[in-house]
Specification:
With 164 residues, the chain is of the alpha/beta class. The protein has 5 helices and 7 strands. The strands form 2 sheets. It has a 5-stranded mixed β-sheet with strand order 3-1-4-6-5, covered by helices on one side. A two-stranded antiparallel ribbon has the order 2-7. The longest helix has 20 residues.
Length: 164
């Protein structure tokens, strides 16, 4: 990895005004507060931007998406999906932004910008209602996902440095 180029993008998705839908943004926030990322790794709260994120995928080798999911599990269940499993994560729409994620990945593939490695870390949402707080079950899963993302980055040779 080089210092001026982004090789790995850690992308949190969701609407922080809609309780558990804001999970991806909350994880990105926690990572940014607790860790210094190595050169070549970018952290982005993509909110609900959908296709507007397309330019951010150009030149990315690995994409790690963090989002609340609708997988049919108990609220707070953590999922790690990769490769062919990823479309399954966005098959059942939890919120409007997930339609944008499917479109984003499809257009990136058509344009030849789909990262060679794609991983989703997510949690089964408990509630998608107006509110700033995560439900207790999803809030408890936040630490597990933060640890999972750090381990994932480490396995990719991009170990985040814990800020004291």
């Amino acid at each position: 990895m080089t210092g001026s180029r982004t090789d790995i993008l850690v992308l949190g998705l969701g609407n922080i005004l809609m309780s558990d839908d804001g999970f991806g943004g909350r994880v990105v926030e926690a990572l940014g507060e607790r860790y210094r990322l190595p050169p070549g790794v970018a952290l982005l709260d993509g909110g609900t931007l959908g296709l507007d994120l397309l330019p951010r995928l150009e030149g990315i080798d690995r994409l790690l998406i963090i989002d609340a999911l609708q997988m049919g599990g108990a609220p707070g269940t953590v999922y790690r999906l990769h490769g062919e499993e990823v479309p399954r994560a966005f098959a059942q729409k939890l919120s409007v932004h997930q339609m944008g994620v499917q479109d984003l990945l499809a257009v990136a593939e058509l344009q030849g910008h789909l990262p060679r490695e794609l991983v989703v870390w997510g949690v089964q949402a408990g509630a998608i209602d107006m509110g700033l707080d995560l439900t207790p079950e999803v809030g408890e899963a936040l630490e597990e996902v933060v640890a999972g993302v750090v381990a994932e980055l480490t396995s990719w040779g991009a170990t985040p440095e814990r800020i004291a």
